[in-house]
Amino acid sequence: MTDVRGTEVRVPTEDGTADAYLARPADGAPRPAVLCFTDAFGVRPTVREAADRVARAGYTVLVPNLFHRRGPAPVVELPGFIDAEARGEIFRRLRPVMQELTPERATADAGAYLRWLAELPEAADGPVALTGYCMGAGLALRTAGAFPDRVAAVAGFHGGRLATDDPRSPHLAAPRITAEVYLAHADEDPSLPPEQIERLEKALTDAGVRHRCEVYPGAAHGFTQSDTASYDAKADERHWAALLNLLDRAFRSGAPT
């Protein structure tokens, strides 16, 4: 297996400096870059472990603290395991933090992360891949629409509120997306009801985006997060297979389209 080096880094943005985790193969050779947008709980041990797993597959992975304006991650105290009781209290404290990350701020930050990767010696030249979890799935879609020339592939898992009536809803980025998109939805997810899934699929289809949307039966919102009560090992392994296959198509099976 590929040896991996993980380090804490700092990325300059328009609104200060974002702390981030960088994982890459230890040989230091330039590899295709993956920008990961976390769930609301942010950068933490399980997220670093996931970034290391992607790096072991031969990629350079940047995982920024999306809420860097509030300080270093985690911006609220997290228990080692987030059960249903803890989840409610954590979100009570996170809600105002999440509301501060407007689409405009998130897009400006994404541009800064992409510029930083473009200058990183360990990142290969060319477009990057985006992956996003929960709220991060929407951020990934918006970023792909805002920077189509910089994004080769997008993967989103158990995303919420991806196709709402909001005039800034993530699905409205579809006409500007040129990357291949893979989205895996949690079954019976209240944050992404069937009507939103249908609206999202239609937006991608109408825009001619090469995509695949799947619902993982029986999986709860947050099914990839092993430090939460929502974790589903079977769905998580399916997520890993889909993600690594997408990255392989984007970077190893021919030039990105």
TrEMBL record:
InterPro entries from the UniProt entry: AB_hydrolase_fold (IPR029058), Dienelactn_hydro (IPR002925), Dienelactone_hydrolase-like (IPR051049)
Alphabetized Gene3D superfamilies for the sequence: alpha/beta hydrolase
Keyword Metal-binding (UniProt): no
Keyword Hydrolase: yes
Gene Ontology molecular function, alphabetical: hydrolase activity
Descriptive protein name: Dienelactone hydrolase family protein
UniProt keyword terms in alphabetical order: Hydrolase
Source organism (scientific name): Streptomyces griseoincarnatus
Domain Dienelactone hydrolase: 19-249
Top-level taxon in the UniProt lineage: Bacteria
